Amino acid sequence: MISGNGQTCPGCGRDDLTQAVPAAYLAGRTAVTSRERDMDGDSRTVTRRETTALSAALAPVPKGPTYALGCLGALAGVVAVVLVRRRNAFARLTRGRQRAEALWARGWYCHRCGTAHFADVPGEDVRPLTLQEFRERVWEAGGYGDLAALQRATG
Question: What is the pTM assigned to this prediction?
């Protein structure tokens, strides 16, 4: 249970269900380990990452490019060049990640209202923001705000 932390939500005026954005983000990310059988019937341990919709919506950076490889056979070398190019382009795009994370870390999430807000951040008003508005503000601070329209926040 989230207890009062002194940070009042500008939407509902209460502080009993507000939580720092980094804490709300991390609370929704877990690793789940289970035993499974492969196609040969052998048992193996598998660990999967699970992320709640809220945690995904509060992410300080966009999802990176996927690196899944299908049945590419002889094209594997060409695909590797493309993947390296994508990774480098994503790294260039998110160079301002520290600025985004600095703003993100000063955000608060209200579990009662389902909104986020900033407290004591110069240049930011304190009104409640939808998760999409919060994402846009944070990602704009990092220089990749245009991706917020492509990767919509749903929580």
Answer: 0.74
Contact 104, 60 (CB under 8 A): yes
3-state secondary structure (DSSP) of residue 1: coil
Total number of residues shown for the chain: 155
Burial of 132 (0-12, 13-18, 19+ CB in 10 A): middle
Dihedral of the CA atoms 56, 58, 59, 65 (nearest 10)? 50
User: CB 82: neighbour CB atoms within 10 A?
Assistant: 11
Q: What is the pLDDT of residues 106-152, one digit of tens each?
A: 999 999 999 999 988 998 888 999 999 999 999 999 998 888 899 89
Q: Which two tokens stand for residue 94?
A: 């998110």
Is residue 139 in a domain? yes
Alpha-carbon gap, residue 16 to 1, rounded angstroms: 9
Question: What is the C-alpha to C-alpha distance for residues 130 and 33, in angstroms, rounded to an integer?
Answer: 33
Its domain, for residue 116, covers 18-31+46-64+97-148
CB 97 within 8 A of CB 61: yes
**101 found inside a domain:** yes
Closest by CA to 61, choosing from 100, 21, 116, is 100
